[in-house]
Amino acid sequence: MIEEMLKLSDANELQTYIYDAIFKMRHKNVKSQVDKTEKIVEEVYTYIESNYTDSTISLETITSYLNISVSYLSMLLKKRKGVTFNKELVKYRMEKAKELLRFSNEKIVNIAKMVGYNEVYYFSHSFKKYEGVSPKEFRINA
Q1: How far apart are CA 1 and CA 47, in angstroms?
Q2: C-alpha R_g of the chain
Q3: How high is the pLDDT of residue 2?
Q4: Whole domain around residue 106: which residue ranges?
Q5: Which alpha helices (DSSP H) does the chain contain, by range?
Q6: Which of 36, 96, 97, 119 is the least buried, fewest Cβ under 10 Å from its Cβ?
Q7: How many domains does the chain have?
Q8: What are 46-61's pLDDT values in tens digits?
């Protein structure tokens, strides 16, 4: 870098060279931050995929796992994906429940437990809110 600067013929070229170098460094730093936040978001989705059956999964458990603050992760998900952790968790669980309702003969109470709900009533309520029909109606129409 110093050798390149010594080859420049005047102050204007030197100034342009320095501005370009600063711009490149700032761009690299911003890209590094974006990569870091994308990695965290990917880790959240991987964690959900691996742990959605656990009825105790929460924003607090995942932030503890990732060693970041609740507010930082909440802000990150909202900014990068436009969603909250709880909405993503419910979405993942409901999509898994829909698969099970379509392709298995498992009882609804068992499906509720398989996707992380201890109470079948709460599962049914959440499913109807998400899908617009009860799990039983969904299965009949699937």
Answers
A1: 43
A2: 25
A3: 59
A4: 88-141
A5: 2-6, 11-51, 59-66, 70-81, 85-103, 108-114, 120-131, 135-141
A6: 36
A7: 2
A8: 999 999 999 999 999 9
Residues 74, 7, single domain; the answer is yes
Band the pLDDT of 90: cuts 50, 70, 90: very high
Q: Does 100 share its domain with 42?
A: no
In angstroms, how far apart are the furthest CA atoms of the chain?
80
Contacts of 114 (CB under 8 A, 6+ apart): 53, 96, 97, 100, 106
Q: Which residues are CB-neighbours of 17 under 8 A, at least 6 positions away?
A: 4, 5, 8
Q: What is the pLDDT of residue 9?
A: 66
**21 vs 79, residue with greater confidence:** 79
Q: Are residues 73 and 98 in the same domain?
A: no
Amino acid in position 47: Y
**Which residues have C-beta within 8 Å of that of residue 122, sequence separation ≥ 6?**
112
117 and 128 in a single domain? The answer is: yes
